[in-house]
Design a protein that fits this description.
With about 350 residues, the protein is α+β, with helices and mostly antiparallel strands. The strands form two sheets. It has an eight-stranded antiparallel sheet, with helices on one face. A hairpin with a 5-residue loop joins strand 3 and strand 4. The longest helix is centred in the C-terminal third of the chain and has 29 residues. The protein is globular. Its EC number is 2.7.14.1. Belongs to the ATP:guanido phosphotransferase family. It catalyses: L-arginyl-[protein] + ATP = N(omega)-phospho-L-arginyl-[protein] + ADP + H(+). GO terms for molecular function: ATP binding; creatine kinase activity; protein arginine kinase activity. InterPro entries: Arg_Kinase (IPR023660), ATP-guanido_PTrfase (IPR000749), ATP-guanido_PTrfase_AS (IPR022415), ATP-guanido_PTrfase_cat (IPR022414), Gln_synth/guanido_kin_cat_dom (IPR014746).
Amino acid sequence: MSLQPFINEAISPWMKEDGPDNDIVMSTRIRLARNFEQFPFPIVAEEEELQPVFDLIKNQYHHESFNQYQDFEFVSMADLKPIEKSVLVEKHLISPYLAEKTKKTGVLISKNEQVSVMINEEDHIRMQLYFPGLQLERAITQAFAFDDWLEEKIDYAFDETRGYLTSCPTNVGTGMRASVMMHLPALTLSQKINKMVPAINQLGLVVRGIYGEGSEAIGNIFQISNQVTLGKSELDIIEDLQSVVEKLIEQERHARQLLVEQSKLRLEDRIFRSYGTLKYSRIIESKEAATCLSDLRLGIDVGYISHISKTILNELMILTQPGFLQQYAQETLTPKQRDIRRASIIRERLNLEEG
């Protein structure tokens, strides 16, 4: 297996599966930060001090398998072109921060792309496990098992009082970030989300955009995750996040119902205008495309549109990002060229679905 399967397909295999509450929850992720006990952490290490970490992961885990996570592929960041790195970021297989680093960095990716392990990012190891829909309990169980498998060959930096030691103080303790990606168009349209975000923050959670810290909530997609990692167990954090997400699901469904009951014609008009824009536009910018795809997905969820699957919308949300557009074109594109190609790909994909 090479890099090509990871950058040629917009949809990861696990994303094609159904998950609980997938009308609102797109995915669940568990990320664990770990460091080697015997080596300086990446934020202060020299390149030669990161080499042993890089070599151990590559030599020990390349083409290895663990349970359902088969045939891990080790990819060195130094071997990738900028566009290839952008594609991996757009698929959430690596972070934007890792894509910018050059000193002995890499990523280990399972064949089904459900697990990726970033090497020498902010920490020596940042493992990520993804699941469709809302599956926090299953995700943490699988993450614990995978973490134990790695630890068989690695001595982690761990303190009996503080827990796992990490480069950033906000990750010390469990080293865990649990996050849920949610599509919240009705709460956004009704402007209720603006009141909810401060309340969520007060509970020790944070609301971010689709690509995490510093990113926008493009296409009404929000990432809800824990902020606290010290003083609480992993299961306590999961329980708190589960509770908040369930309340958001309830509020989003109620907001959708009110839109259908009280603003049916206006909602239909918005959805079908967006559908027409996607189906007939010759030029479309990324933000407009994301907004229209969000409206179309809402139309599917409330039953206005029945001949298009949600899977294709997940695919187009990634496929129309700058990195993927240029990967498909096999050349660097100007912003205008990307807007033209984005519109073309959306038209072709929608026509294929309708056909």
